[in-house]
Design a protein that fits this description.
The chain contains 21 helices and 15 strands. It is α+β, with helices and mostly antiparallel strands. The chain has a 5-stranded antiparallel β-sheet. It has a 4-stranded mixed β-sheet with strand order 12-13-14-15. Strand 5 and strand 6 form a beta hairpin. Helix 3 packs across helix 4, helix 5 crosses helix 7 and helix 8 packs antiparallel against helix 9. The protein starts with a strand and ends with a helix.
Length: 520
């Protein structure tokens, strides 16, 4: 049996299936009406007869068969009046339409009252909120694109979406977001992505957040973040670690781009041949880039999104300067040669040495033609003064200072293939690749990160190491386990970054005291 449904200017037919026992059940029919009219899946319809007596599913079929009967269907969000006769036609009209009762037509009047309108507005607000969050977060556009293309999301993409939304929720509303906030995000997901709605649940969004049981993907992610945050807080209650991965506030003088303007700048960056344009657009996208490198859930690396690091030297130093300012950025090159280098050399000479230390010391008199130059040798001596500890290698054997040095700088003879060298690497922390005729005669320097070679602007080994250190911060990469004390000394004692806040080993503090009180 076909039932004609009309809503305003729209007319639909709803099929009422007949079975051996009669007609299809009452709930199935109402669900079809809801779907045809485009009402929210959670709309509940309550049925009464013309006198106001409630009608339940048990008598629905009998009333459907009867002629010249009027059934009123109402909810808090809508009112439906059904005039039924043997023609079995349903006419649905909004309140702006005039409806004439006629024995030859079945009439349904749906009044959309203020509460339904308010619900619709709330859904649209939630939809827009979720869309804006995804458009503003790294990786969010990819989620929107995947749904547009496939009309669904893979498990991995759904997890990424939940992670992004929970991160935004907790950033805006705190560590314990209110129930109504969690519900709004869940509503936003299923209205923005209707195919993710569950037609068998009361509201369609309970698998993302169910306020009654406190369950769902959003609730589980919030609990995970809260648990991890609590553990981290306990670990940091006695000593806080500040380093390259720490989130920082930036006082940026240059205008930063977001949204569509940022996406246009990124697109221009990939194709522009004007170095000045590249540097200006890199400055304007600095804050977005820092959001990207801090997002651990994002699978894309910063070098995938900003590949100009790989062919425009100087961008590492530019980002670091935007992060900390000119004065901090220039501290290493200003202080190392005149203050730290002579004190380190004196400290090494006063200690029991080995063949590797002697080799680095001999570079100071230019008596080692096969070794590193004087400046880089002085930096590598610091590794021997702050050697790896067993605490750094709980899962592997402790390595020597000589082995740790290889995680700072490596040599490649000029003419050898840099691409082949990169292909032989295992993933790991950044290090300096020095290409030249000899170790003490280097023509090109590269910072190696993510198995990619970033050319250094530097022409000297000391300036190249300066870029290597800064790369940890702008790419948000932890120090190599064996070099934690070494890099922490550079960070706090030379650059004075997080001095007094960063976690320092007793050996770092002891060496600083020795150097500051040394007579040179």
């Amino acid at each position: 049996m076909l039932v004609k449904v009309r809503f305003g200017e729209t007319q639909k037919y709803v099929k009422v299936a007949q079975t051996e026992e009669g007609y299809e059940d009452y709930n199935t029919f109402l669900q079809k009406v809801i779907e045809k009219l485009g009402l929210p899946l959670q709309t509940e319809l309550h049925v009464t007869d013309e006198s106001g007596t409630e009608v339940d599913a048990d008598v629905f079929e009998e009333l459907l068969k009867a002629g010249n009967l009027t059934i009123h269907v109402s909810t808090e969000k809508s009112t439906v009046v059904l005039n039924q006769d043997s023609s079995s036609e349903l006419l649905v009209s909004d309140t702006s339409s005039s409806v004439a009762s006629d024995s030859s037509d079945a009439t349904v009047i749906i009044e959309i009252n203020n509460e339904y309108k308010r619900t619709h507005i709330e859904q649209e607000s939630a939809n827009e909120m979720v869309r804006n969050v995804l458009q503003s977060k790294p990786g969010g556009e990819k989620i929107l694109h995947e749904y547009d293309k496939t009309k669904t999301l893979t498990d991995a993409t759904r997890r990424q979406m939940v992670n992004l939304l929970v991160a935004d929720m907790m950033e805006v509303h705190g560590r314990i977001p209110p129930t109504h906030v969690r519900t709004k995000y869940a509503v936003g997901i299923t209205t923005l992505f209707p195919n993710l709605s569950d037609p068998y649940s009361g509201n369609g969004y309970e698998h993302y957040y169910d306020a009654e049981s406190g369950s769902g993907y959003l609730a589980w992610r919030i609990k995970t973040v809260q648990r991890n945050t609590a553990v981290q807080s306990r670990r940091c209650s006695t000593s806080t670690t500040y380093g390259p991965k720490s989130k920082r506030d930036f006082l940026l003088a240059d205008k930063q781009l977001f949204g569509e303007e940022c996406r246009e700048a990124i697109s221009l960056l990939k194709h522009s041949t004007d170095v000045s344009v590249v540097k200006n657009k890199m400055m304007a996208t600095f804050q977005y880039r820092q959001t990207l490198v801090q997002d651990q859930q994002n699978s894309a690396t910063v070098l995938d999104v900003f590949p100009r690091f790989l062919d425009v030297p100087g961008l590492i130093d530019q980002d670091f300067t935007m992060m900390f300012g000119e004065e901090v950025s220039g501290r290493f090159l200003a202080k190392w040669p005149t203050y730290f280098k002579p004190r380190l050399l004196a400290e090494c000479k006063n200690r029991t040495s080995n063949e590797h230390v002697e080799e680095l010391l001999s570079a100071q008199q230019n008596s080692n033609e096969s070794g590193w130059d004087s400046d880089l040798s002085s930096v590598l001596l610091l590794v021997h003064l702050l050697p790896p500890t067993s605490k750094c290698h709980k899962k592997s054997a402790k390595i020597s200072s000589y082995q740790a040095v290889k995680h700072v700088a490596r040599y490649l003879k000029i003419g050898a293939s840099v691409e082949a060298f990169l292909g032989s690497l295992e993933p790991g922390q950044p290090f300096l690749l020095c290409v030249g005729e000899q170790k003490n005669n280097i023509q090109r320097f590269y910072v190696i990160i993510d198995q990619k070679a970033i050319p250094c602007k530097a022409q000297t080994s000391l300036a190249a190491f300066d870029e290597l250190f800064k790369a940890h911060f702008i790419f948000s990469v932890n120090y190599h386990e064996s070099l934690k004390s070494f890099y922490t000394f550079i960070q706090t004692t030379v650059f004075n970054i997080d001095l007094g806040s960063a976690k320092e080993s007793p050996r770092v503090k002891e060496l600083r005291a020795r150097l500051f009180h040394a007579n040179t």
